[in-house]
Amino acid sequence: MAEAERIIGTPDSPGAAGSGPEQSDGNTTPGDRSGPGESSPAERSGADGTASPAGPPRGRRRIAVLFTVAVLAYALDLGSKLLVVAKLEHHAPIEILGDWLQFEAIRNAGAAFGFGEAFTVIFTMIAAAVIIVIARLARKLYSLPWAIALGLLLGGALGNLTDRIFRSPGIFEGAVVDFIAPKHFAVFNLADSAIVCGGILIVLLSFRGLDPDGTVHKD
Hints:
The protein is globular and about 55 Å long. Strands 1-2-3 form a three-stranded antiparallel sheet. Strand 1 (94-95) and strand 2 (101-108) form a beta hairpin. Residues 3-8 and 10-57 have low confidence and may be disordered. By secondary structure, it is mostly helical. It contains six helices and three strands, in the order αααββααβα. The longest helix has 25 residues, at 63-87.
């Protein structure tokens, strides 16, 4: 009889057969159904109980690139204008490529390339608004190409706005210094060039579906 009990096992025996799936190793908490090899909900959500991020990080913001490009564009524009006013104004034009390209000092009260001379104050306000919008957009700027494009716009807008504020005939009515004079084309400056290049780059980025925050969308 003892030999039969040893082979079959009794219900009161610790290792008896039939104790079944209700056994636990003492480390399982009620409601935890994780099987072998599976991570528990606490492990899946992290040690501190917070959920892991859904997507990959965007990377670092490109504010430094934006302002570096803007400062460079602004410095080149300001330096060229100071040089033109000191050395070229009230003097004969300087031929660079014969009649096809000359440096000639012109005071422009209008917008870029000499358009709209009767709306100087309006163009000044538009330039100020562009600067404010770019500064606000910089907080969520993660795309390098967008940083370069907006930096060109910001530097160009600051360059011409400086002329509007500090040059004659008065504050917010100042005439912008233009000096690059291609044949059969309007006279412009480096700030105008930066604005145009930045605008073209923004159009190309928009066609590619690249947003300032670095994401790509498809229409």
